[in-house]
Amino acid sequence: MGQLFDGALSITAHYHEIRGRAAEIARALGSPVGGAEHLFLGMLHDGGWPVSVIAGLVDLGQAEDAVLGLINDPGYPPPPRPRTLVPDGHVRPWGAEVAFEMGDSYVGLEHAFLAMIRMRQTVPARALAGLADLDALEAAVLEAKNAPPGPHEGAVFLPEGQEMDSPLRRAIADALPDGTTFGFNSGGDERTWMHVIGPGGSNPEITREVLNAALASLNRPPLDG
Fold first, then answer.
1. Burial classification of residue 73, based on how many CB atoms lie within 10 Å of its CB (0-12 exposed, 13-18 middle, 19 or more buried)
2. Beta 201-202 vs 193-198: how paired, if at all?
3. 181 and 55 Cβ atoms separated by less than 8 Å
4. Residue-wise over 101-119: b if at least 16 C-beta within 10 A, else e?
């Protein structure tokens, strides 16, 4: 379930989680409120959807360094406080307009990401523009969002009892070979699956290797067989 967003839509639980992380990042960087840059840093630290999709097109470590470089620039203007009274730690929500445009009944991180890179003057858009083609990033996210539901042909199921939580998403992102990204199902009652996507499509053997490496880094049981 989400929470009320701009009186009409609800944000996903994942979005709500990342907004909380973005508030912590903003405070750590000396800003009483969070902007697009802090929300994007929260998404990078999480390593999940939709960042997992663009990981094959842009180096996420370089993206974080580029964002921090802009934040630390002497000419950087911190996020302004909203006109309405908000508590310290407030993070501006992004993506409602994009969700409306797409006809979605919720606001997810994909909508927030698209809204940020479409507004070319935001810190995330400026940081990413120096590393990748913004239109290609948008196309990759839209393609993944519009992919048919259900396990991909090359998908591998997580071991019983495992969830695609934030630590595992970050570990998978760290274990990916160069030039690849990964996708996974989210929500619903079906068992969790993932697949690694490379230039030649999805390869179940590479997916198994990446997933086992990620599980091992977290001291979690590997796949059977």
1. exposed
2. antiparallel
3. yes
4. eeeeeebbbbbbbbbbbee
**Domain extents for the chain?**
1-146, 150-225
Q: What is the C-alpha separation between 96 and 120, in angstroms, rounded?
A: 17
| 134 and 75 Cβ atoms separated by less than 8 Å | no
- Give Cβ neighbours of residue 73 (< 8 Å, ≥ 6 apart): none
Where would I find the H helices in the chain? Answer: 13-28, 36-46, 51-54, 60-71, 96-102, 109-118, 123-129, 134-145, 166-175, 204-217
**Whole-number pLDDT of residue 117:** 97
pLDDT at site 27: 92
Which amino acid, 148?
P
- 10-residue averages of pLDDT along the chain (225 residues): 52 89 93 93 90 86 96 90 66 90 91 96 96 94 78 81 84 84 69 79 86 94 82
Topology of domain 1-146, CATH: Double Clp-N motif (1.10.1780)
